[in-house]
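User: I'm preparing a small set of examples for a lab meeting where we compare how different chains pack in three dimensions. I only have the primary sequence for this one, and I'd like the structure in token form so I can line it up with the others. Please keep the answer compact; I'll paste it straight into my notes.
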Amino acid sequence: MDQGVGVAMSRVRTGVPWREVAVEYGPWNRVYDLFHRWQRNGAWQRTLTRLQARADAKGG
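Assistant: Understood. Below is the structure token output for the 60-residue chain.
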């Protein structure tokens, strides 16, 4: 999951098209499918909420 979060955050931050995500993350369509599945089932929001809570706890 960490790798999926990394690629999704990188993609969102840079605006790179899904078809151009780094090959190290696997086939672009698999990355796209995972991101959208996580978005639909709420996993992405829960992950972002947890990451934000950790950053807040550290004073970031």
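A couple of notes for your slides: Helices lie at 2-14, 28-41, 43-57. The two ends are 23 Å apart (CA to CA).

User: Perfect, thanks.
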